[in-house]
UniProtKB/TrEMBL annotation:
This is High mobility group box domain-containing protein. The keyword DNA-binding applies. Residues 12-81 bind DNA. GO terms for molecular function: DNA-binding transcription factor activity, RNA polymerase II-specific; RNA polymerase II cis-regulatory region sequence-specific DNA binding.
Length: 87
């Protein structure tokens, strides 16, 4: 319905954490390695293994990027408050 789609547009998403930033960066690489037909669950499993094996300095780069994105999110949406929805 029209009201449902307009309320969805107003929804502000949470800023991504360091793993999500890493996953976004690695998504294309995963799809090339294991095939473009795989689903998001498979992509996440592969990326999770890679994340666990990354050296601390690489992980720290993604933590810093996530922190920057979080700060930018706070500037853009100063009144944002995370409110998880019940399923």
């Amino acid at each position: 319905s029209a009201s449902a789609s307009s309320s969805r547009k107003a929804h502000v998403r949470r800023p991504p954490n360091c793993f999500i930033v890493y996953r976004m960066a690695m998504r294309e690489k995963v799809l090339k390695e294991i095939g473009s037909q795989c689903n998001n669950t498979e992509v996440s499993k592969v990326v999770a293994r890679w994340w666990k094996n990354e050296p601390e300095d690489v992980r720290e780069q993604y933590r810093e990027k996530a922190k920057q994105l979080s700060e930018e999110h706070k500037r853009r949406y100063p009144d944002y408050k995370y409110q998880p929805r019940k399923r």
